[in-house]
Amino acid sequence: MAGKITLTITAGTQQGEAPFVFDQHDTLLVGRLDDCGVCIPKDDQVSRHHFIMEVNPPDIRVRDLGSRNGTYINDVKYGGRERNETPEQGAEKQFPQLDLHDGDVVRVGKTIIKVKIEQAANQLDQPALRCQRCKRDVTAETGAARQGAYVCQKCQSEMNKDPLNLLMGMIRKEAEPSVNIEIPNYSIVSKLGQGGMGAVYMVEHTKDHKKAALKVMLSRIAVDKIAREKFMREIGVTRSLEHKNIVRLIDNGVAGSIFYFLLEYCDGGSIYDLMVQRNGVLSVEEAAPIMLQAIEGLAFAHAQHIVHRDLKPQNILLSHGMSTNKRWIAKIADMGLAKNFDQAGFSGMTVTGSMAGTFVFMPREQVTDFKHFKPVSDVWSMGATCYNMLTGRFPRDRKPGQDPLDMVLQNEVIPIRKRNPTIPVAIAEVIDKSLNTDINKRYHDAGEMHKAFTRAVEKVK
């Protein structure tokens, strides 16, 4: 554990409440609305959603959300909007976010929050931290409180397009004694794609020539032994998932802060790829069987108490498998991976980072109750994926220049038939219910959603 962060309210209407203590990745929203972690309803200087704090101990960042009066850090004002601007116009300015330090003081209205950052005892007086690749001292970059294996930002930037080279280099050099990683009997065929934290490659078995996919991910933070072992145990749980609509995890391993996952190969690409081929929109006839299968796979995972956290068209893959009728078999990829990677903190700052592409598929409670992600939140993301497949649009409209985080918190979902009135009513009703902002009016899990969607499809046959 990389220490802990304590936030204590020292002035204002919430003074005297128990401090907020964080020892893992989480967020804290401050504002007047009751969905805020610190709700200040009677302070007229506070906006509905005034600012958000994201913590990933020992790191902490604050981001103003287009507030009326700004957020003060050590008496210096950040953010704030002009008198004639709406909150949405204020949020369009992309106000700067600021990384905080031990002893900093945050003020909003009459409320004052004191920041305390404590190092873990086993991290005191540690030697300088060096990059796994270039070996330069990166203590200033990671902060003295972080220890473990780490690839510096410069090397990450250079290797992001092809992290496999870095992984293979780590294996060859045996950068640390704990490295125990092999990808036996597989040769690299081609790169299939890349994302914010790594890339995916097609590999082929040297003996039977069966194809597989190799996903390589780079941690954004230093990875110590305890965090690495905990993450690998969690992945071991998801590796046991066996379902026709979930991509099978064949093998996995780690070299320092570089993780790899050998996965079942899907020859049809992703739903996103199929949408591109169809000019951005799928017909109900083509989309409905794919949706049903994807929801069935998610329902199986939910029954095993496993959530996804990052459902979107890019994370639902398509395969012909052994089928001869040319119908797609939908398979959910990265099941549990995003949740565990994020919870371990390896993804760095995500909510206040650069995840605009994922925000459009994110339910509001994923921001307001970041740590306690539940199946009902996967339901929203699955509904948003179905919505996107049938309309080519996203459930919420984002104003030009609007902060994507502000979009999640403020903008309402537009009923799907307003996007495309030809969508059958029965199917539209299921998708709209899955996207309800009120989690109590949504399907509780994917099992409920699958039953409802099955009935809807039967009605329109």
How many strands in all? Answer: 18
Question: What does the radius of gyration come to?
Answer: 23 Å
Structural class by SSE content: alpha+beta
Kindly state the mean pLDDT as a whole number? 86
| Spatial strand order of the main sheet | 2-1-11-10-7-8
State the helicity in percent bands. Answer: 25-40%
- Ranges where pLDDT stays below 50 over 5 or more residues in a row are 174-181
Sheet with most strands: 6 strands, antiparallel
Strand content: 15-25%
The end-to-end span amounts to: 54 Å
Oligomer status: single chain
Give structural notes.
- The chain is an alpha+beta fold and 461 residues long.
- It has a six-stranded antiparallel β-sheet, with no helix packed on it.
- A hairpin with a 2-residue loop joins strand 5 and strand 6.
